[in-house]
């Protein structure tokens, strides 16, 4: 059975991320994995501006039909619904036996309406995609859809008399039955999004860049949540889903990000754009990012203070930091937390004006990611004057900083052995050059005395 997934639109929806999530979930069913072949077709946004949309739609319909689909799945969002329905209509007119299934945020609560307005549609999934889509595929593949005993307790309003594996049994499905349009009364949400198999973990770099690369952003796309907290007048989702938000766990997202980085990919785009919208998750990431920066501040000092003279700056009562501490709007600390709400931020006050900003930013980000990866909690905030505290100090000399960097496994891992050794050598060379020099202070101090 050939299944073609058709999409068009902005970065996340136009990438293959939704397609991969649906496919991965469906392929947990052994027979679907063995007997179904999946393909993804993306329609360019040029169709929106075409002088003759029908002609362009027919051209794209021919491209879709060239993939020889038995089932065409549409991913409907408010910005692409009319275009994809136009293409699907042409596909059905050419191949009447083609089964067309529509889903996506723009179908929520609109299954019956869409079927009545678009007689070429066969099924509309106006709720949770992964599970319902899997069951629809199973129905067309085998002639029946089975609701597993383990799932039944999770389904809201499950009918006592299931119709022996018909489409009626599948949660959130509206469908044609002869001349009638019917809708299952069953509802089922995946409250734990981690039940959806990851489309990223275990995939090689080539597969990731092929399936999830977004040319517009030059990055690989990652999904972190479902739903939308914004009640836009033109969008069906919040109207029919009470604006509910659901999230993949931080552990899952961090595992995916770690895998993406481990295969050499550095640019990542959060497709939903709301990775930190849940306060608890934002606070956790913020704490760990701060904790990582503080944990590695001394080991990375060569990137923040690269010369012998840099360390003369760290003097008490000068607003230059002398202690590895943090506090809200406290300029005596090495790390100042400022702002509130969307402007809440961490200020690393250790780098001076003589630091290379690229290296200082790289070290700051590497330390923060180290904290997130290892779930490093920051110490308790320092209240009062950090200059008078006894917490861990900023290195006092370049020699001390070199010694700390030499033993830093985290710095080696973050920058790679070659880059690590290069900048360690640069710091040693800087210290060695100073050690060979005779300073003006030494001449003035000792000329008359010795």
What does it look like?
The chain is α/β, with parallel strands linked by helices and 450 residues long. The protein folds into 3 domains: 2-189, 3-Layer(aba) Sandwich (Rossmann fold), CATH 3.40.50.2300; 195-270, no CATH class; 281-440, Glutamine synthetase/guanido kinase, catalytic domain (Creatine Kinase, Chain A, domain 2, 2-Layer Sandwich), CATH 3.30.590. It is built from 17 helices and 15 strands. The chain has helices spanning 11-14, 17-26, 30-35, 53-65, 81-94, 111-117, 129-142, 205-212, 237-241, 250-262, 279-296, 301-304, 357-374, 398-406, 409-415, 417-436, 440-446, and strands at residues 2-7, 37-42, 71-75, 99-103, 123-125, 173-177, 180-183, 213-214, 219-222, 225-227, 245-247, 268-270, 326-328, 335-338, 345-348. Strands 2-1-3-4-5-6-7 form a 7-stranded mixed beta sheet, sandwiched between helices. It has a 3-stranded mixed beta sheet with strand order 8-9-12. Helix 4 packs across helix 5 (81-94) and helix 11 crosses helix 13. The longest helix has 20 residues, at 417-436. The protein starts with a strand and ends with a helix. 37% of the residues are buried.
